[in-house]
Every structure is written in C-alpha cells, then in structure tokens.
Amino acid sequence: MTSHRNVIRISIFAAAMSGLLICVAGCDRTRLDTTAPPLTSAGEQRPRLYNFDNPSRIPGRYLVVFKRGNALAPVPKTDPSAPYVLPDLLPTSREATYALAWGMASRVKGTVALVFYHDDLHAFALFNVEQQTVKDVLANDPRIEYIEAEMRIVYDVLSPAGFIPRPRGGDGR
Prior knowledge:
By secondary structure, the protein is of the alpha+beta class. Helix content is 26%, strand content 27%.
C-alpha cells in the first residue's frame, strides 16, 4: 500500500514537472523580444529574459538555462564582469550544474525545484524569488543563456495529437 502511494506521488510530481516543460515549449514565442540583449562591459551579451512582462506569468517562478559548449568559452573569471557565484565553475557536468543551481538560488534567496542536465538542456527551475532580484543578479551572469518566467497554461482543445497548450491571456481567455 505504501509503495503504491509513493508511485502515485512520483507520478503526480512527474506530471507537474512535465507541465513546466510544456509551459516552456508551448508558450507563445511570437510575443517574445527577438532583439539582441544588451552587452556587458566586456562586450558579451546578457541573457535574454522571456515572459517577464506577460500577464500570464506565474510570479516568482523561473526557468534558468545555462549556456553549453563553445558559448561558455569566453566566460571571464577574474575581471569585473566575472560571475559572482562560484566564478571558477562552469555547467559542464551534472555535479557542476547542480552546484551552480543551488549557489545561484541561494544568492537570490530562492528555491531550486528541479535541475535539468540533459544533452539539450542544462537548467534549473527557480521558485520563490522576486523578479527584480532575478533581473539584477542572475541576468548579469555570463554563464546563463536565458531566463524564462513560468506561464499559466490552459488546455482548451482536444485534437488528434492530444492536448494543445495555450497560454492564458490577461483577459482570462
């Protein structure tokens, strides 16, 4: 009986986390800012901030995605634009990605909900943090590719392919 309850709890948690991934994959990217982000003093681009002003965002919940591969090469370690949190650490391994996620969350007084370390995604879900703190602290870290606010998704259409997610607009539709 207890193991059956644990399986149900794990299934519910997995469904919730897959909802987070659907949210990231299914949000309306036509509204996203496609211009280049501002440059830092070292000439590097700052991370893109997605859905920060969208009325469907869930306040205090973000997906922070790290750069991978060659994009990490120019990260400074000693000059003024060097990362503040664990400056000598790059998200090139599972352990380093976990350490950076927890270190960055601690720096912004947030909570890590989940860390993703896959071939295509090195990221973490960040909860319970103020938007301005994310903009001021995390958006200045050169190891971050982009930060996306979590969105409310409404499943309103059943198609042959299954449910199609649609971000809820400010008018509730």
